[in-house]
Write a structure and sequence with these properties.
Two copies of one chain form a homodimer. The first copy, chain A, is an alpha/beta fold. Chain A contains 14 helices and seven strands. A seven-stranded parallel beta sheet of chain A has the order 3-2-4-1-5-6-7, with helices on both faces.
Chain lengths: ~325, ~325
């Protein structure tokens, strides 16, 4: 298919074209750069929402219900699941992707799970590339579902316009979340499964921790919304809070600022990716390979080999 | 303090010197490279054990008990905790580091928690640098405790000689572990809290999943060891299994192979780190900053800016 027809199909939200485009960026091959450049002129309309939290907090169920909510309000929803513990991701073997099938068959919903593993890394780069494709295809809302443990997963959540941290009223849960860095990235919290015992004390604990934070520079105070996603309770309140946060960002000129900050991280990642490709061309990869036995024997150190390779790279560019 | 005296003190396991050395590698300042080069000639004696698994599996308790076991056998133990959900890490505010105090005051034990956050990344690089320092200081056993969710955390666990995945007999736990990539890295499993209901069926489920793996090339089949770490049950069996795996690696020439593979990953990381430092010197950092507004406006794409910066970097090396 000629490139312009392919691009046109993506703009028209032809799901097969969208799916193929995401596969292209996921594979990281050279076509992906051209594709993303072409799509870029059509993006910026979708609102991006990160849904994160510890494993078992019910993020998938919440994503599912929130999707239904937005569908009722005629918004097209793209879902990118990058949670290694989520039933959307890596669950093909056991067939539990089925759980999402009620929204998955809807023409206004696109679901994609992204592999969280792979030696090349670049998880957040690929995830955001995929979001750009969905944005260009006309999805109004993009939901990133990602487990809130691990640096790259946090990076994904942080790349959203509004980041929701989902917790459950279990002992120490909010404290764990704080340790894992979830407190800093939350624009608001959802206390899911809030019909369970301990719900009120979890809210008290969470509020206490929130008050410990430094608020001097921030005019936005994260709220705590109660929900029972499995029974579709709290979705209105969550959607309202997302809208309230969106308005806050827009009215204070912060949406642009936040998106600029996200682009900064992303451009850095792309440049580093290009550089690594050039760095690990065969000659240096082979020379690295040849040095390993000596490092294990203690004849030379990893840092000495690294310096040699670094200097070799620089002189290869010079000539 | 002159560098040679400092190095001598590390070799003599002066805890203050060891602690300072780890702070130097953690800060990533330029002294760290020289320090690690000096220490490298004295390393390779410690046996490195990764302890990983989902949050709540009892990794810290197990690390604690295993440490006591090795102390009884006159082995010096260094612990590096990189688990954002662990009480050792980031728990200073709430004072729950106390939990480890029974081994922490022992002269033959060194505990260090490493920050899992920080915009520079490089978690596994710093963690392994810290392990090298403990190795050079004469610790016989190095335990890495890390949560098994997230790419960089998996990288830490993978950098060990023997990797233990700790699970609990809760429904779906082993399946979650498989999805999160824990199955591939486990040299053996510990089913902790195995006095809880569901223990036997968890073992059956885990065995089933293990049998689904491709074993054609591997002569090592991961075992499942039952334990109740909080009651000090199963530590002998775990230590025996570690020893059995160590012998297997040594007798088949695989320990050297594994360490070579780990050094390869590490050297790559160091070279990339050096390169990034040069890449993001002020001029390019400023030019990136200046382009962000245009990207948000859709005038240019992140990929176009990335290419410009990449080319600028190459020509700066040429001249």
């Amino acid at each position: 298919m000629p490139a312009d027809i392919f691009i046109e199909r993506i703009f028209k939200n032809d799901k097969r074209a969208v799916s193929r485009a995401i596969s292209i960026v996921e594979s990281g091959n050279s076509n992906s750069t051209e594709l993303l450049k072409e799509l870029h002129k059509n993006i910026g309309h979708a609102y991006r929402i990160g849904i994160t939290g510890p494993p078992g907090a019910g993020k998938s169920t919440l994503t599912n219900q929130l999707t239904k909510y937005y569908r009722k309000h005629d918004k097209k929803v793209g879902i990118i699941a990058v949670d290694p513990t989520s039933p959307f991701t890596g669950g093909a073997l056991l067939g539990d992707r089925v759980r999402m099938s009620d929204v998955g068959s809807d023409a206004g919903v696109f679901i994609r799970s992204m592999a969280t593993r792979g030696s090349l890394g670049g998880l957040s780069k690929k995830t955001i590339d995929a979001a750009d494709i969905l944005d260009a295809a006309g999805y109004d809302i993009i939901l990133f579902e990602t487990v809130g443990v691990g640096q790259s997963e946090l990076d994904v959540a942080r790349a959203a316009d509004t980041t929701i941290v989902v917790l459950v009223p279990e002992s120490g849960d909010s404290i764990q979340a704080m340790k894992a860095g979830l407190m800093e990235i939350a624009d608001f919290f959802v206390l899911n499964k809030s019909d369970r015992p301990g719900s009120e004390s979890a809210i008290v604990a969470l509020r206490t921790i929130l008050m410990l934070r430094d608020h001097t520079e921030k005019s936005w105070m994260p709220n705590i919304i109660k929900a029972v996603a499995s029974e579709n309770i709290g979705m209105n309140e969550i959607a309202d809070e997302i809208e309230r946060h969106q308005s806050y960002l827009i009215n204070n000129g912060l949406l642009k600022e936040k998106r600029e900050a996200n682009y900064k991280v992303r451009i850095k990642e792309i440049v580093e990716f290009l550089l690594k490709n050039e760095l690990w061309k065969s000659e240096r990869a082979e020379s690295l390979e040849a040095s390993l036995a000596k490092v294990v024997e203690g004849e030379t150190s990893p840092y000495q080999i690294a310096e040699l390779l670094f200097n070799n790279f620089k002189s290869s560019i010079k000539h």
